[in-house]
């Protein structure tokens, strides 16, 4: 009578944690190695990530800011071979088709998308790419579009201005939250009234518990 033994490995918690960290590091390396550092990291689609790389990007701009009228390089994968892909801009409930392109034979998408000049500024924006036949949908992370030029005439272009609509040439920002003192509802509270009770954190007896 023969006997069979099945070797099993039951990793302890430390091993699982180490493997998870290693896998995360490998993933970060692979993704960062294949995309420019100023790509807007677009993470959540129904099938996978969509990547956006701003072109002609001002030095002062943050990764998630783009200028209205700027061209964006949009890339993704997992579409059907050579299918037509519709790319649209989403701002809340407003969805605006902006471009259609064709996936390559391997299902990869690479398209240049110009942000329409009529697109609303200073609101959360996403790009969506959807394949006509496969239904594959890639969705971007949120980014914010700024108008080209210097709306308030204070010498700082909107995309670089901590208060794009209020003249504040000194760009003072006491709480370092990226919003200039001149237009910051809580200029000394970088969390900007996190409990939403109308009292800024620097004068709120309990910044994390709404006062009633
Ligand atoms: Ca300005
Ligand atoms: Ca300003
Ligand atoms: Ca501020």
Written description of the protein model:
- With 212 residues, the protein is α+β, with helices and mostly antiparallel strands.
- The chain has a domain at 35-146: Sandwich (Immunoglobulin-like), CATH 2.60.40.
- The protein has one helix spanning 13-34, and strands at residues 48-49, 51-54, 65-67, 71-76, 84-91, 94-102, 109-114, 124-131, 137-139, 143-146.
- Strands 1, 3, 5, 6, 8, 9 and 10 form a 7-stranded mixed sheet that branches. A 3-stranded antiparallel sheet has the order 2-4-7, with no helix packed on it.
- Residues 152, 154, 156, 161, 163-164, 166-168 line the site of one calcium ion.
Q: What brief labels describe this structure?
A:
212 residues; alpha+beta; Immunoglobulin-like; seven-stranded mixed β-sheet; three-stranded antiparallel β-sheet; 10 strands; disordered N terminus; binds calcium ion
Rg from C-alpha positions? Answer: 23 Å
Structural class: alpha+beta
The appropriate CATH architecture of the domain at 35-146 is Sandwich
User: H/E series, N to C?
Assistant: HEEEEEEEEEE
Task: Write down the overall geometry.
Answer: elongated
CATH top level of the domain at 35-146 is Mainly Beta
* Proportion in β-strands: 25-35%
- CATH third-tier fold name of the domain at 35-146: Immunoglobulin-like
Number of strands: 10
The major sheet is characterized as: 7 strands, mixed
Q: Could you estimate the helical fraction of the residues in percent?
A: 10-25%
Please give the count of helices: 1
Give the structure's gist in a few sentences.
With 212 residues, the protein is of the alpha+beta class.
